[in-house]
């Protein structure tokens, strides 16, 4: 079986996903699985739709897809289904499309978890009138929007004294994010904390340092190489992490079932967010 991995994401994250997927391939023997990767840091919806079209014409046993919500991508997912190529969305979902399943974190619950941490760290009246900077890579990704929705809902309930300043379109890329974040900090002196929904955390840290400030609490997503280092030096307070290995195992099992090579039913379930701190960081594998 050939699985095509299609992702628009910063290299640090797409590489982590690809490695986790490849590590899972031997676990599904006697089915022999192979991965073809189509990874890009930035792409238009039309470009990703074109990648899906090429895969469909070439043939595939399944597509694992992280992509923005775009009409052309939805149309191509429908075409893949007609061609009997199952598509599984990863990390950010495309509900209502013809995808087979969603694999990844429960994004609204993860955003709520971040808000729960903020509320405990920044109680009233000590932080009355202060704000949290919510950094999103792009509003094109539904998963990030769901995280912000969950974050705002729980923060309103548990810490109504805290405001939220949203900042998007840095792509999760350090070189794009730094100036946007620095401008936001200059315009909003009330910002005291960060919820990094979409990455670019080195840029966040540099922007705060250039303004002579340090966040009271800094919560981010995914235990990639950058975030491990930022946790170790206490730049990050906590990382909301989900088990990529478990996600990739689930995706492979779903693809095998969709290709009728396994009769036992497999049910897709969102992954819970684990709170990782410098005190409980798992070993790198």
UniProtKB/TrEMBL annotation:
Residues of the Periplasmic binding protein domain: 46-241
Stored Pfam families: Peripla_BP_4 (PF13407)
Keywords tagged on the record: DNA-binding, Signal
Main location: other
CDD domains: PBP1_sugar_binding
Source species, domain of life: Bacteria
Localisation per UniProt entry: Cell envelope
GO molecular function terms attached to this record: DNA binding
PANTHER family (alphabetical): D-ALLOSE-BINDING PERIPLASMIC PROTEIN-RELATED
Similarity comment: Belongs to the bacterial solute-binding protein 2 family.
Protein name per the record: DNA-binding protein
Organism classification: Bacteria, Pseudomonadati, Pseudomonadota, Alphaproteobacteria, Acetobacterales
